[in-house]
Amino acid sequence: MAGLGCLTATVLGVIAGVLRLSPNWLVRKLMAGYVEAFRNVPVLIWILIIFTVMTAVMPAPSAFRGDNATSSMLLGAVAFTNRGVYVPSPVWGPGSMVVVLTFLASIAGMFYYRHYATRLLYDTGRLLPMGWPSLVILFVPSLIIFFVMGQPITLDYPSLQGFNFAGGLHIRGSLIALWFALAIYTGAFIAENVRAGIQAVSKGQTEAAAALGMRPNRIMNLVILPQALRVIIPPLISQYLNLTKNSSLAIAVGYMDVTGTLGGITLNQTGRAIECVLLLMLFYLAISLGISAVMNLYNNSIKLKER
Amino acid sequence: MSRNTPAFVRSRMLPESPPPVADTGAIRWLRENLFSSVGNTILTLVSAYVVVRILFWAAPWFFNGIWDSPSLSACREMLDGRTGACFAVLTERWNQLLYGFKYPSELYWRPTLAFVLLFVAIAPVLFIKYLPRQMLVFTGLYPFIAYWLIWGGSVTVPVFALVGVLAGAVVYRRVLTVSAGVAVLAGIIAAMVVWWAAGRVTASMEGVFALEPVASRDMGGFMINLMLGVICVSLSLPFGILLALGRRSSMPIIKWICVMFIEFIRGVPLITLLFVANVVLAYFLPPGTNFDLILRVIIMITMFASAYIAEVIRGGLAALPRGQYEAADSLGLDYAQAMQFVILPQALKISIPGIVNVAVGLFKDTTLVSIISIFDIVGMIRGPILASTEWNGVYWELYGFAALLFFITCYGISQYSQWLERQLQTDHR
Known about the structure:
The complex is a heterodimer of chains A (307) and B (429).
Chain A: H1 2-20, H2 25-39, H3 43-57, E1 79-81, E2 84-87, E3 89-92, H4 96-124, H5 131-148, E4 153-156, E5 159-161, E6 164-166, E7 169-171, H6 173-200, H7 203-211, H8 216-246, H9 258-270, H10 273-302
Antiparallel strand pairs in A: 1-2, 2-7, 3-4, 5-6
Helix pairs in contact in A: 1-2, 1-6, 2-6, 3-6, 4-5, 6-8, 7-8, 8-10, 9-10
Chain B: H1 25-33, H2 38-63, H3 72-79, H4 88-99, H5 109-126, H6 136-151, H7 156-175, H8 180-202, H9 222-247, H10 252-267, H11 270-284, H12 293-319, H13 322-330, H14 335-365, H15 377-385, H16 396-424
Helix pairs in contact in B: 4-15, 5-6, 6-7, 7-8, 9-10, 9-12, 9-14, 10-12, 11-12, 12-14, 13-14, 14-16
């Protein structure tokens, strides 16, 4: 749960943070509005608002029934209902292992290619294209194997049976509410960190890179972001920790995470308040310390090496 | 070819012509800010589309809003199929949203007055340069006045509490020349003695200047959020300073106790601490004592906030150059004096933005108390209002209202802190 949230929040936050500094006035103001709106309103209210969207605004499964149904499935595959979202789930047939292994191998291959291209650039000055070959290496072998093996992975589409959808993968509304709310909320904070980090890189760096004739895209990727990263990472760690701790708000929308089971059900059933709450606290303490240990390792590895 | 007679030389200056239209005013601004390149133009068009869509979706909803109706079904009848909000729920239930559903309605003026006085009390702290220092006396008195106004009861309780604090302060001043540690202890003991003595006396003076008492379980709504926010932040400041100093102390036991406390509190979510307040804290109290829930929650949130504030202040302390500590030592100041006159004023100034951040975050986190069944504004919305037969199904108006209240407060605080930062910036940039 927290992992999903962290990932989405980081992507959102970096995009919003970079866009807040864009030369485009409208985009800048839009992003400022997003950041201020989400930073200044409690996350609990956002969770409840998105949960309301998921439960009260989405149509009931019965709305999908009949010839003149009021709702239809997105692309015929994804159903948004007030009982959650139904998406197709993969069915792993015999031989699917080979496809998965090929895919993993192509990921390794892609990194090797990028590494090789960079080495070539530094050693000989020859510039190999990076973008499309990586994509080709990533997807083509897996696709070939997929068809050679006779399409072992199929999708199980959700379909209306009885009063509800059956088949496919059921994602609860509460999970989506929690995930989106936490991601968007934390994303707003991360956007501010990213902005501060980018602004901390002195303007001379941008100008120097521009004087070397780099394109704005490259300036951002090769000059600004690597330097800004050093400023961004420490507050990012604490944002991840906050997100993990905020995920305990799952209890507010009835998603049974550890707070709901240990702090709710177990406590009510056994009546041993001290033990349950202590266990719960130790659980979060362990996770928090774990995350901060891992992130500190990462931080040390990218820190400016000083003597 | 003669060089002396060029074919044409302008002998008069041309009159100045205005810059081209495309390079001035609104058009130039548009070109520079919105349409400077292809990518930028696409971005502009996309975001303009998003804004227009949102406006077209929200505007009829807002302007068709019904402000006066007894229930949601009546509201829908009035709207007659059009899109529109039902703000009537706000006009009808505003008192519940702000004060909770059990606070006696004829007494609403008391928390409102306390709220207004809060601004009077906090102004001299916020704008210390522009307002006379004498107003700080009122800031000191404010907690007791606010307690009397909100909870009611005999005026003797807050008065004797104030006397106790004053007695403690006087004793502290007297003993300070001997030793700082002894002075703190003596001050606390003096205050305790006064309170103990006062407890004997007040029982017989229950009716003196009494306002009608209100139990804290009868309070709710946004009032609870504000109360928790203000009380916990102001209480956690001194505790946070003590914890930060303790963490930097050279005495290992004190240092390790502070480190353990801070890291433990920072490692667990506030919700688990509220569970502690709800179900566990009673185990640690002597049997027979019965704290009310609000007080227990205040204790836990204060602990939570002071751990975070301690970390912020520790950052401020660490940012001070070592020379400041050494200078204070070489002046012959002892630890308490060095801290009071040299270190803390500078360290606190550095940590103001961080403290404001913690305060805003904490204020937002006060909504979590709705999970342990205190009817704050979120609790009121989810509980009595959405569960009532009249208003079951009104979501956007209520959550939007709550979000708006928090937005106004938090945005105001953050704007103030940015202003203060500019004021305090003594270095040149």
